[in-house]
């Protein structure tokens, strides 16, 4: 059964606008169920947690329920392994502060040069305490992070590898399980930025075999919030970043300065309920949230491959166009985040010519500054990025192609 787009789009009130929305990698539309859960929390349990009275206890139960649902969604072994926080950028910053306290001068961190800066700057800042940074660049011909290059960088002083699951420009999926195996064989840890991957495929942290994984929920149809996964053993041994008197085994609270945002955390139930409803609607029986998510994301991937290939096929035959990333919509190799540049053209100029047609695309470096520099695209003001998700339609893509025929 193909994805029922009428059913899907009915869950996203914002899609009723006349715009075709292709800026999803910057932030997706929000599920109505997410907004309803947030409203429910704010109107019926808007109090501080930790008290003995009933309303405080209700609020605590709701956040615990949502945290458990997120843990099940991503395959975490324990609810305490889910640390919710304000953003991926903040979560990685706090993780770097915590992990940095366990490092000594001369220790090494490998950073991918294809990553969003959220998974770059926090690690680079540790150079101030004598940490050595080694850079993992992509192959400029294939745009891939080569495993052989990683092997050459790994050494006895490597303590961490920071890498993206999927570049927010290239749209290409990295083999995280194999990367993690090699990193662990070298005695190091791996921290994965899954922001550009999580909207398109189910994240299974145990299957990936990673140590830390982070993604932004507002790019996965939820509230403006983020999730950090960490193996419980690592989180227990790392120093916290909360108040000095918070116990070291108080997980995840010791990594949540200022506490969790209660209503946004509770809002995540709107996402998990949507995935379950979608699997049921498409007659994909599932006996657990994890199984329902697998079914839902499989439907997403099949549909996204169709719409991505419609755009990529057009770009492949267009003279003077360079696709930045995998040129074919292979669901095992890429997601429908598609970037391109036009020979002799400024990317800003192209996007601004599209804007009047009520089609939302974007240009720039998208904070993947190392990648844009390495590809020599600064002078063109970066790339044109068309980032699609499962609620986009072939008709919307065709609207874009008609406009591109005029603009390019």
Keywords:
4-stranded antiparallel sheet, 15 helices, 2 domains, alpha/beta, 13 strands, 7-stranded mixed sheet, 408 residues, Aspartate Aminotransferase, domain 2, globular, Aspartate Aminotransferase, domain 1
What does the model show?
The chain is an alpha/beta fold. It folds into two domains: about 5-30 and about 290-405, Aspartate Aminotransferase, domain 1 (Alpha-Beta Complex); about 35-270, Aspartate Aminotransferase, domain 2 (3-Layer(aba) Sandwich), CATH 3.40.640.10. The chain has helices at about 5-10, 30-45, 55-75, 90-100, 120-125, 145-155, 175-185, 205-210, 230-235, 260-265, 270-280, 290-315, 345-355, 370-375, 395-405; strands at about 20, 80-85, 110, 130-135, 160-165, 190-195, 210-215, 225-230, 320-325, 335-340, 360, 360-365, 385. It has a seven-stranded mixed beta sheet.
């Amino acid at each position: 059964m193909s994805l029922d787009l009428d059913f899907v789009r009915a869950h996203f009130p914002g899609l009723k606008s006349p715009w075709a929305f292709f800026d999803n990698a910057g932030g997706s539309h929000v599920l109505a169920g997410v907004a309803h859960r947030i409203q429910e929390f704010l109107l019926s349990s808007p109090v501080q947690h930790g008290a003995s009275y009933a309303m405080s206890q209700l609020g605590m139960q709701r956040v615990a329920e949502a945290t458990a649902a997120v843990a099940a969604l991503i395959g975490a072994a324990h609810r305490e392994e889910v640390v919710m926080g304000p953003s991926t950028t903040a979560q990685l910053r706090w993780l770097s502060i915590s992990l940095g306290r366990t490092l000594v001068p001369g220790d090494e961190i490998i950073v991918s040069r294809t990553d969003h800066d959220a998974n770059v700057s926090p690690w680079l800042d540790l150079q101030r305490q004598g940490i050595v940074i080694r850079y993992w660049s992509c192959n400029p011909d294939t745009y891939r992070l080569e495993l052989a290059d990683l092997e050459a960088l790994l050494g006895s002083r490597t303590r961490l590898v920071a890498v993206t699951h999927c570049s927010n420009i290239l749209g290409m999926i990295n083999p995280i399980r194999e990367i993690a195996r090699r990193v662990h064989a070298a005695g190091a840890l791996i921290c994965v930025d899954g922001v550009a991957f999580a909207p398109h495929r189910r994240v299974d942290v145990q299957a990936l075999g990673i140590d830390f994984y982070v993604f932004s929920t507002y790019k996965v149809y939820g509230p403006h919030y983020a999730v950090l996964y960490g193996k419980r053993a690592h989180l227990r041994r790392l120093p916290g970043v909360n108040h000095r008197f918070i116990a070291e085994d108080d997980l995840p609270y010791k990594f949540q300065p200022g506490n969790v945002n209660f209503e946004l955390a509770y809002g995540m139930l709107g996402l998990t309920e949507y995935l379950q409803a979608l699997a049921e609607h498409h007659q994909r029986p599932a006996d657990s949230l994890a199984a329902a998510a697998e079914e839902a994301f499989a439907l997403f991937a099949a549909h996204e491959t169709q719409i991505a290939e419609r755009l990529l096929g057009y770009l492949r035959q267009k003279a003077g166009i360079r696709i930045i990333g995998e040129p074919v919509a292979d669901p095992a190799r890429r997601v429908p985040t598609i970037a391109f540049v036009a020979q002799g053209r400024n990317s800003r100029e192209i996007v601004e010519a599209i804007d009047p047609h009520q089609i939302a695309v974007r240009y720039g470096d998208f904070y993947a500054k190392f990648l844009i520099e390495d590809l020599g695209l600064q002078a063109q003001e970066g790339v044109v990025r068309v980032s699609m998700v499962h609620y986009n339609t072939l008709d919307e893509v065709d609207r874009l192609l008609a406009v591109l025929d005029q603009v390019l």
